[in-house]
Amino acid sequence: MAGGSPKNQQLENQRKRVTWILGVSGLCIVFYILGAWQGSTAPTNPSEVYNRIGCQPGMSTNEDQSSSSSTTFSLLPVELDFESHHRVEINRTSEAQKFPPCDIKYSEYTPCQDPVRGRKFDRNMLKYRERHCPKKEELLLCLIPAPPKYKNPFKWPQSRDYVWYDNIPHKELSIEKAVQNWIQVEGDRFRFPGGGTMFPRGADAYIDDINKLIPLTDGSIRTAIDTGCGVASWGAYLLKRNIVAMSFAPRDTHEAQVQFALERGVPAMIGIMASQRIPYPARAFDMAHCSRCLIPWHKYDGMYLIEVDRVLRPGGYWILSGPPIRWKKYWRGWERTQEDLKEEQDAIENVAKRLCWKKVIEKDDLSIWQKPINHIQCIKSRNVYKTPHICKSDNSDAAWYRDMETCITPLPEVSSEEEVAGGAVEKWPERAFAVPPRISSGSIPGITAEKFQEDNQVWKERVSHYKHIVSPLTQGRYRNVMDMNANLGGFAAALAKYPLWVMNVVPAKSEKDTLGIIYERGFIGTYQDWCEAFSTYPRTYDLIHAGNVFSIYQDRCDITYILLEMDRILRPEGTVVFRDTVEILVKIKSITDGMRWKSQIMDHESGPFNPEKILVAVKTYWTAEPQKSQEQQ
What we know:
- The chain is α/β, with parallel strands linked by helices.
- It is 27% helix and 16% strand.
- The chain has a seven-stranded mixed sheet, with helices on both faces. The protein has a seven-stranded mixed sheet with strand order 13-12-11-14-15-17-16. Strands 1-3-2 form a three-stranded antiparallel sheet.
- A hairpin with a 2-residue loop joins strand 2 and strand 3 (189-191).
- The longest helix has 35 residues, at 6-40.
- 43% of the residues are buried.
- The chain crosses the membrane at residues 20-37.
């Protein structure tokens, strides 16, 4: 029969239709992959890298810098535009808002340590200098301005010794502490000779004196805390010995001391020993230090020394210089009686003994104690010393708005007197990548040694990718770095060989509290609720990393205020790297476009098929308008 049977003809048509569909589908897939490959190709030369992120190569820190008006910003060859496809509602203020600059009086605004607000609170135990954050109706919807003649800070290590006067125009400390050599004004800049109240020969020589008494250079001491740090010269000079110090001081009559520290490129926070725990986990620091820090260690049943004991690692050291140490020599200069100073030292010695600390040595201006490596003997000694007792608390790491206690934080149990409670840590630098004891002991559910190693590999790859999109990441452009959601500290570890430091932040009330792990790796950090302001001055960080932060906080508070807080603490021409879903990044970009930021959404380092994307943003350079004199008005 001509043409074949109807049944055969029908089968032939079906075959042709299937072949056509497969052919078209194959072409679509080929062209999609080709287009995705072209759009995600890494830049191949330095000039393209600089153009992508909007940083001018070779930006200097000289006198002409104040003339830079804004950061240039060129988009990627293929811009990722998700705006029309993603319209998920998350907690934020009105659409397409342009944020005006705040008044110049807010140039050094610290929302949760505002001196004016603080005066309303209890002065007992200096509670009024603790964190007191503004209510929602008090929050500012404006951009904190830099001073009119602001310049980018000196690069490290020059920044350790020099700060531009126009960036922090306060001469008070140079006058008040002139004899003690804290800080000097030299023309258009401040110079930091490295002096301190108790180290007139300089912090370097002072640290050498400590090194003669305890080992500072063999890697066994890596993390330190400096209570009442001044301008953080002790922490600044420890860095060349591979020791990183968390320096803190209150916002008080010593104007801008923490601001000076951060401007120098030295880790620091606004903080105080008052009624609440300092925001660090238990067993965090290898060494604690107080040089005439004026903390009443012997008062309130020894509560402040008990808090130091909580954050000291087993076997950690506490160093005290200044009143009352060596009172027989200094009592006249301190304008106190010999009896008063002797009584204070006896009281401190008594508290230290009850904490089971061993006095290592008292020599010249220094006195050093050591915490025991476990609590076997300490528990036995409670038969002699009834107070302070061992705490019954089930969470010694909890430190976010948590009151201090007058009981000894218990150490993890051990099987012998030679065993280090909680596990010993490796010496630095091996410590950075060794499996931390909190992980190897299984104390944090769901985090294993295998996951730790996987996380290190992930961050190694991510930082390698960041070098192409955030330049010059490793060449000294960025000194003060913050990781807003640090997890295991992998970002800081991947950057450890570069001339920068990372403030590792673990969000308060996280499902897994990993800050103790970060300290066991030899890095520093703090707890923080990002619905509130961070305890720092404006313009104190060069680079901020925000990985999945907004996924965590999108239902907790208005993300606009989190972004405004990031703008407050970011330096002009500083960079932010966001990692999140496309929906959230589109929302973030729509807000930061009204904040004088230039930004670009990019593919994940693994390619376009990963639902997580990267948003790189650069804060443009701008300052407050110079205030006109009355004659000009």
